[in-house]
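Notes from the 1:1 (GR / supervisor)

We went over the backlog. Supervisor wanted to see one worked example end to end before approving the batch request, so GR pasted a single chain during the call. The sequence is below; no edits were made to it. Supervisor asked that the structure be written out right there so they could see what the output format looks like.
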Amino acid sequence: MNAERKVNMSDSKIGTSPSRLDRLNQVIASHITDGLIPGAVMLIAHRGKIVHQQALGRQAPDDAKPMRMDSIFRIFSMTKPIVSVTAMMLVEEGRLLLSHPVSRYLPELAQLQVGLPLNGPDGQPALGLAPMQREMTVQDLLRHTSGLTYGIFGASLVKSSYNAAGIGDPDTTNQNLIEKLGSLPLESQPGTTWEYSRATDVLGALLERLCGKPLDAILEERIFTPLGMHDTGFWVPIEQQHRLAEGFAIDPVTQQAVHLLNVRERPQFLSGGGGLVSTAHDYWRFANMLLRGGELDGVRILSRKLVALMTSDHLASLPHAKSGANYLPGPGYGFGLGFAVRTAAGESTIPGSIGDYHWSGLAGTYFWNDPHEQLSAIWMVQAQEQREYYRQLFRNLVYAALPD
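Structure output shown during the call:
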């Protein structure tokens, strides 16, 4: 089993238990040996210092090349926190207000209606329409209470209409996305229900409209260059494609086909909700900036108070926000402006602290910050069908390694 280890530190004030980190490595290595995942990269930082880095297994199932600490992964929805931070930078500059209706910036979304399930004259389900009680706001986009949806989580007539319209197809552009959404109904009334959705894609389109630049240029200028995230972007240049991690074509557990983004050339659709690639170290720089209150290596990205606003629960005053069947943050968690935020010591099935925040990606990647423990952890894998299992497994093993 290949293992590229960079750091493993432990003392009474900083670090983790070496024996328990070895257990973490052994557990993940055993899953690779059993053919459940091709390989993985892990990074753990405590009190601002990386205390453990590990690359295990192969970078791709059909290639003997070992996984590397600088292997590049499709991070899918871990794009969302980055785009959310970028939007908050514009809030801080006075160019955007969270309370503004989205239509102030994207007028195509001013006259939306809300889908209502009805019984048609033939007794079959039919899609009725109702007016919005209020427009979606920028805050709604950030906390997923916009009324928008995805077409892939659960089933409804509105979700079916998204799929029929080709929402999110690879040949979409952000402008085309907004035009299509302007002609489709919402899944729910804005400001009422948490619904995982195209909201952060819309936020990316809003940033393009406001800044007059494509989203890749905006993120490069505001996030990637200032933070030194040199391997993060919407595609992998040809000279770096030998570092691109791949997953199994068919998941060995579910026997389902695994579909990953083509990131070997610049995409037509610069998806603010799920289009980026990154490395463990790049994403740690972003996470560490947040954990440090918006600053890293003398570069301030956001003010301390705006980071605190983003990582606070924004659903507490919405009594029915968590009532949907697909409330992904789960028990014990609310949602802030781009992150799930822990609100209770119990309720959840995973360890953590009140105030910890996280998000993850469809292909299996995951990160969280725990301000109470001054802990950041990054998990990189391309195992779409196993994402829920490995997020929980990794988190349990990381917390088990914390010092007394």
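Supervisor's comment: The two ends are 31 Å apart (CA to CA).
Batch request approved.
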